[in-house]
Amino acid sequence: MKKLPLIIDKFLTLFKWPAATLMVILLPAAINVYKIYPKYIGYNQKIFLLFLAGFCAFFGFKIFQGGGKLRTHFEITAHELTHIFFAKLTFHKVTDIKVNDDGGEMSFEGIGNWLIVIAPYFFPTFCFILMILISALKSYIPVDMHNAVICAIGFFAGYHANTVIAEIHPEQTDLKIVTYPFCLLFLPTANLINFAYIMAFANNGWAGVGKVNQLLLYLTGKYIKDLFSFFF
Length: 232
Description:
Blueprint: H1 4-41, H2 45-65, H3 69-89, E1 94-100, E2 103-108, H4 114-118, H5 125-136, H6 146-167, H7 173-178, H8 180-231
Antiparallel strand pairs: 1-2
Helix pairs in contact: 1-8, 2-6, 5-6, 5-8, 6-8
């Protein structure tokens, strides 16, 4: 088991640029899924408006709350927790986490990989946790709370959008580690797909997420076929 993190790290190192290439291939489908998905499954307008209300509520809350050390520490902690989640996901033992006014740092055993480094810039941790909790507690959530749940998903989607916008900048150390060209190729599509997943889950649970995957595969196959037909 001790060698498993090293094996995973080496595999991910080999898969780094193929992953970036895959995201470039998926980009047209990831953009068009927002246009086609509502017609594909019949998107519920009420749910979309509730999701949007929650999304906007986050930015209203942010403006009302203002700055402060508490919010800064929360955002840094959330950032480091995403690093930790992917470290655990790739079987690394986390040894330490530090959070202060200037930033945060987490430590783990082993070499590490690009997925751990770049995770906070595309993975919506709080949305994912909320989606798991909603799935686990679905039978216990009262019907009159369903609208609030949709708003909560939108709220944390807003948090993720704000985090991505705020943290992706030229001085960000993590981005330097994985290199800017890789970030440019990987992050836009990764974020578009994850936001599509979040919105689809709000509308139709994990079945909606599955429909997004089906649509992405269908559209990508269609675009590749059209491209080959154009040249050959």
